[in-house]
Amino acid sequence: MTHRASLPSQLKLGFLGAGQLARMSALQAFRFGIQVAVFSDRPENEPVQFMTPHSSSGSFEDVSALVEFAKTCDVVTLENEFISSEILQKVQDLSGIPIYPSPRSFALIENKLIEKQTFEDAGIPVTPYQLVSTLEDLTTFGEQHGWPYLLKSSKGGYDGYGNETVRNFDEAKTAFAKLGGDKGHDILAEAFVSFTKELAVQVARNETGTMVYPCCETVQENHICVAVLSPAPIDEKYQKKAQKLAVRAVEAIDGKGIFAFEFFLTNDGEILLNESAPRPHNSGHYTIEGCITSQFENHVRAVLGIPLGSTIMNKPAAAMINLLGTHNRPAETDHLIRALSAKDGHLHVYGKVQSKTGRKMAHYTLLGKDVQQAYQQALSLSKNIEI
Amino acid sequence: MTHRASLPSQLKLGFLGAGQLARMSALQAFRFGIQVAVFSDRPENEPVQFMTPHSSSGSFEDVSALVEFAKTCDVVTLENEFISSEILQKVQDLSGIPIYPSPRSFALIENKLIEKQTFEDAGIPVTPYQLVSTLEDLTTFGEQHGWPYLLKSSKGGYDGYGNETVRNFDEAKTAFAKLGGDKGHDILAEAFVSFTKELAVQVARNETGTMVYPCCETVQENHICVAVLSPAPIDEKYQKKAQKLAVRAVEAIDGKGIFAFEFFLTNDGEILLNESAPRPHNSGHYTIEGCITSQFENHVRAVLGIPLGSTIMNKPAAAMINLLGTHNRPAETDHLIRALSAKDGHLHVYGKVQSKTGRKMAHYTLLGKDVQQAYQQALSLSKNIEI
User: Fold this and answer.
1) Residue A301 and residue A299: Cα distance in Å, rounded?
2) What tens digit of pLDDT does each residue of A230-272 get?
């Protein structure tokens, strides 16, 4: 890994994916005078395609198209987990263009089974799990860890897609088939954990150092993050523990880039790693205004190999509300007046062309002195927004 | 003027000009999910052209090209003073697309003589001036107000271009000819003012209200702004006076958009309006991190007709250093490590293709507790940067 001390103006950062995470990262790349290219696997115009003349589309499995794209860039980075590490490795080898986070790091987390083993080996407590291959395994796991439990496809999965909650053997059997267990796909059973909070920590890392963000709380509804509170309203010792585990996790995969780690704080005061993401994460959107250096800026800094910025919060507290689509219609953000008029309220709209009920369309961050108060205010200020 | 409560995702904001001011404004437009189009009068690729697929080039005097461009946008705005209000009015009338700041507002300040009269009529003290039409006028002005004094072309002028300091009649005669006084161009004589500080205040205004930024100090070398300190290290009563005059000035021209006003604080404790700009201004770059809402965000909010954001500072003090080109070469920002590693230091590179000695290429903002200390630190952290 080389340490960069210079930013040529023609430097081009390529994103594999063109959604809101690439968009917010691109905005930071632009601040450094860097050019941005995107490779999208969607036929429709995606948000970032309105922000750069350097945009291509194609399949995430088309190695030669990906290689051609990479050759137009100086560094390539990810915004999702939809391209296999094997393909990423080929693209890097054939194009000669570095991809960060590296295919090697990604290989350690793309498969949920390997991910769990990687982190367990590094001494990081994870939620109890098991590879289930037969119908008998489904019963055994339920008997050992209790019902309900979760079945997860070991590959893919995003915002709860690829996850199924099963309350009994019949549901387990149906979910197992739905997730492809019948066809030999690796399926993971994961015990339900009784938790008091869901937490997240972002970590930026490259050859110049490691920067860990505050431990925040994520509020989930139907497996979708609806709000983030930072710092998490929990005892500081738990915050520090989660931060320590997050740093250990990024070191375990020798990560270069920005990473997010999601934890459960259990009823017993244990902190268990639940999921990881090798990219900017919804739990870190509040850092745009909430921290001296946003997760997106540190993502860009990290993959370019320049020094990382401070992750200290600008104000004592931040609350972020995800604004999910309320209609199926051409996107339009309505009833904004209250949210825009609030003193330390910050609106981000992702520029998606179509709104769909439940789709992540925008977010709203409110900074303040007290995190619970900021959360309640942010909810109130944003509740009329239709999108 | 209509008050907007909704942001359709396909809304397109057009910039007349494609330099760093349009660039930084575009970054804020993108945050609201808005699309950006630029019309550049330069043959080379300008910074914003790397940030949007909607880019055209042409002459700022070609009404039909400007009309065609405007028709692709929902709202058009300015990033410079290079298009006459007469042409702007025609473009607005023929395209049916609103331009903000309005051609009517701009007509009151584009000509330095009319500008002075507009602000004087509003009760705002300005530097002593006179229209000079003959060589005799040059002598008379020198005798009345003392030598040296300034000769200014009444139209155009930017970073000291179009301004000449004259120390005696011979210099005045030469400068008068150089500025086109011989050819009947309106030339303004302006008295040298003995000042202790140069100040600037940005004001955002639209139908939803008016927001005034802190009064900052601009540090000038050879008529080029090299640094900005905010708040200005002067008695608060002078800060408030300058803010009050700036608000009065924007009201005098019924401004919609962001405006910057530059003042002299004289040895006698008077505050005199020196120049105005109907656009984001170099003196307000520090607001990106320094204030809750940056001048660029409030510019976008103002011209779209949505509520303006708070202008309160995020930290007690901010210092901004302009990073001027140190070489004539393809642009490259070198020796960045110290600046990037500073805790609350923020680097912005404008993405210009070519560096030229003295050209505005980038800027560096440092936030802190004390403005003089922040200024000294920012100078020290950025002094090694070559660009």
Assistant:
1) 5
2) 999 999 999 999 999 999 999 999 999 999 999 999 999 999 9
Q: What is this model's ipTM?
A: 0.93
Beta carbons of B32 and A347 less than 8 Å apart: yes
Residue B208 CA to residue B213 CA, distance in Å, equals 16
Report chain A residues whose CB lies below 8 A from the CB of B35: 50, 351
Phi, psi dihedrals of residue A51, rounded to the nearest 5°: -115, 5
Say yes or no for a CB contact (<8 Å) between A312 and B341. no
Q: How many CB atoms lie within 10 A of CB B189?
A: 23
Specify the pLDDT at position A161.
Answer: 63
Q: Is the pLDDT confidence value at B1 over 50?
A: no
The answer for B335, left when phi > 0, alpha when psi is -120 to 50, beta otherwise, is: left
Asked if residue A230 lies in contact with residue A316, where contact means CB atoms within 8 angstroms, the answer is no
Chain B residue with Cα closest to A3: B337
Q: Going from the first residue of chain A to its last (387 residues), give the mean pLDDT of each consecutive group of 10, the final group possibly shorter.
A: 73 95 96 95 83 93 98 96 95 98 96 95 96 94 95 71 87 92 89 95 97 98 94 98 98 98 96 96 98 98 96 98 96 92 96 94 98 98 95
From 3.30.300.350, 3.40.50.2300, 1.10.260.40, 3.40.50.20, which CATH number describes the B12-99 domain? 3.40.50.20
A89 touches B at CB < 8 Å: no
Query: What is A195-382's CATH superfamily?
Result: ATP-grasp fold, B domain (3.30.470.20)
Chain A segment 47-86 residues within 8 A of B by beta carbon are 47, 49-53, 55
Separation between Cα atoms, residue A79 and residue B203, nearest integer Å: 38
Contact B54, B48 (CB under 8 A): no
Reported as a single tens digit per residue, the pLDDT across B292-331 is: 999 999 999 999 999 999 999 999 999 999 999 999 999 9
Q: What does the pLDDT read at residue A1?
A: 44
Instruction: With CA atoms as reference, report the closest residue to A216 among A277, A279, A286.
Output: A286
Note the pLDDT tens digit of each residue in A176-192: 999 988 888 889 999 99
Q: Is the Cβ pair B31, A333 closer than 8 Å? A: no
Instruction: Please name the residues in contact with B255: beta carbons below 8 A apart, sequence gap of 6 or more.
Output: B101, B105, B203, B205, B278
pLDDT in tens, B218-238: 999 988 999 999 999 999 999
Number of A/B CB contacts below 8 angstroms equals 155
Q: Which CATH architecture has domain A12-100?
A: 3-Layer(aba) Sandwich (3.40)
The DSSP bridge pattern shows strands A195-206 and A209-212 to be antiparallel
- In this structure, are residues A77 and A18 in contact, taking their beta carbons and an 8 Å threshold? no
Is residue A106 within 8 Å of A70, Cβ to Cβ?
no
- What is the rounded end-to-end Cα distance, in angstroms, of chain A? 43
Q: B157 vs chain A: nearest CA distance in angstroms? A: 27
Q: Which of B27, B337, B349 sits opposite A27 (nearest CB)?
A: B27
Sorted by where each begins, the domain ranges of chain B are 12-99, 128-191, 195-382
∠ Cα A54 A55 A56 (to 5°): 130
* Omega prior to A330 cis, within 30 of 0: no
Q: Using one digit for the tens of pLDDT, what is the confidence trace for B22-53? A: 999 999 999 999 999 999 998 777 888 889 99
Q: For residue B352, which of A119, A34, A296 has the smallest C-alpha distance?
A: A34
**May I ask the CATH architecture of the domain B128-191?**
2-Layer Sandwich (3.30)
Q: Are A241 and A232 in contact (CB under 8 A)?
A: no
User: Residue B347 CB: number of other CB atoms within 10 A?
Assistant: 24
Whether the per-residue pLDDT at B162 is higher than 90: the answer is no
B299 within 8 A of B278, measured Cβ to Cβ: no
In contact, B241 and B226? CB cutoff 8 Å: no
